[in-house]
Amino acid sequence: MPVATLLPFTTTPNRKSASPTSFRLTEKFILLLVFSAFITLCFGAIFFLPDSSKLLSGVFFHSSAVETNTRTNPESNSDSGSAANSNNDEKPGDHGRNLHMDFGDQSQNEEGRQDDDALFDIRKLVMMKHAWDSYRRYAWGSNELRPVSKQGHSSNLFGDIKGATIVDALDTLYIMEMFEEFDVATDWVEKNLDFNMNAEVSVFEVNIRFVGGLLSAYYLSGKEVFRRKAVELGEKLLPAFKTPTGIPWALLNLKSGIGRNWPWASGGSSILAEYGTLHLEFMHLSKLSGNPDFAQKVMNIRKVLNRLDKPQGLYPNYLNPNSGQWGQHHVSVGGLGDSFYEYLLKAWLMSDKTDEEGKKLYYDALQAIETNLMRKSSSGLTYIAEWKGGLLEHKMGHLTCFAGGMIALGADGAPTDKTGHQMELAAELARTCHESYARTALKLGPEAFRFDGGVEAIATRQNEKYFILRPEVIETYMYMWRFTHDPKYREWGWEAVQALEQHCKVEGGYSGLRDVYAASPSHDDVQQSFYLAETLKYLFLLFSDDDHLPFEHWVFNTEAHPLPILRRDKTDRPNEVE
Ligand code: DMJ
Description:
By secondary structure, the chain is mostly helical. The chain is 45% helix and 8% strand. It has helices at 3-6, 25-48, 52-69, 120-139, 164-175, 179-192, 203-221, 224-237, 272-275, 279-289, 293-307, 338-350, 356-372, 402-411, 419-438, 472-484, 487-504, 529-542; strands spanning 144-146, 151-153, 200-202, 251-253, 259-260, 270-271, 318-319, 330-331, 374-376, 382-384, 386-388, 391-393, 395-397, 448-450, 505-506, 509-510, 554-556, 562-564. The strands form eight sheets. It has a three-stranded antiparallel sheet. Strand 17 and strand 18 (562-564) form a beta hairpin. The radius of gyration is 24 Å and the shape is globular. The relative contact order is 0.11. Bound molecules: 1-deoxymannojirimycin. The site of 1-deoxymannojirimycin (DMJ) has 9 residues, from helix 18. The active site is at 205 (proton donor), 338, 447 (proton donor), 472.
């Protein structure tokens, strides 16, 4: 079947032709005259019209918006795959219809914008461009960039897999209409992204960044290569589930299929936030491959958890995959626990609200968290503490700050009378996380902050004072902005932009900071791939109209990769994979 018929996104079929055209001498002369007249006219307009900066902003934005609408070239979706034959009504690339509406008049001041932030519309692209161009220039093909020493960097989370920044950034490039960069990245994926290696990877990290990034790129662009690579990688991860309980290992050798757990994890346990953050991607993998194994594996994780007693209704972070018993009773909505809760809610939303079990598990877990972990400081800041065998540690991680956004996202579906209350909790958490930024010298938040020993929302230990370009606080601002349109969320986002530009931006990209309380920045020399996947994407969405990636159509995985909601219809019920 011709691809064009599969992808109805075809109102303007071709992007600008790249083919050279030749002219005779007289024609060249006439063209030169016309061109000079046009240039003169443009300069006149720029210098004599009342506000030339706004005009420039409009020119940049409307031209890129026009380019978006030409992103329907059937050639760019040149190979069709089995997904195109799926019986889902919506086809990959169709999803672009729900991606971009219009930038609107960027020269006008909207609610919540700073006076000078007509320029922000340019800056959001400039930030992404600087991050991307620097990676491309100094670290192309490596997993991440070292922006100070201007070289590549790779953490052992990805084994020998290369290009984490490329795959993590694909959808951000697409959403920001940076199509030339997107095409270069696509070309790299086609030619270089390889999973055939004798190396050990983190199943969780590879899933959220690589599988998630490839799935989003597929749904946005319709390019078959992304579907194919996502399924290929998903298949490589399946041996991780070969344990007596089916709870997967944390680490897996992609060649031998041998798995193991982190040596530091309580008695050889698997980690809640790792095995509990596969659901969204694996449901899509079953859908796109026709292979029910992926869905069965993640539904089995649910079954194992359902059989276990939960202390006070809480989920400990450690679970032994051999015995199926909890390890140490440490509960956290930050590191080790966080995205498990996020995926319960999003499993329900992504199933078009058919996954009633996911829904119940989420709201029950949230109730237990509220009762046992949420507290208010003496000055009235709400925070989520950590729970260790029944005792509270009054510490909240930067990672935990995603919870404001999650609770806001779930508030609408909350059990009777709880919607307003949950929105209040979400707003309070957003405020606390903002305070954790505002109370530092560099106006970016620490890795963890405490509410004890006379301090509130401040890091007291040296090893908790760093900032690694994490997205969670901005993620929560974005959700809160979408649901309330309270201008303070854009103001807070703008403060973060200014701090990032002032303290994290270096000539070779953006760097994390060693101590946010120090008077001047000390750079850690890493531009994390999630900075491009999440931080810059959430900033972009915070300052975009709500119809950019609307929540009625998209659910973000924990790495901010948008996945379409799996629509129910008579023939195709998303959670009923045989
Ligand atoms: C990301 O990789 C994901 O958001 C994950 O869930 C938690 N940590 C980082 C960003 O901080």
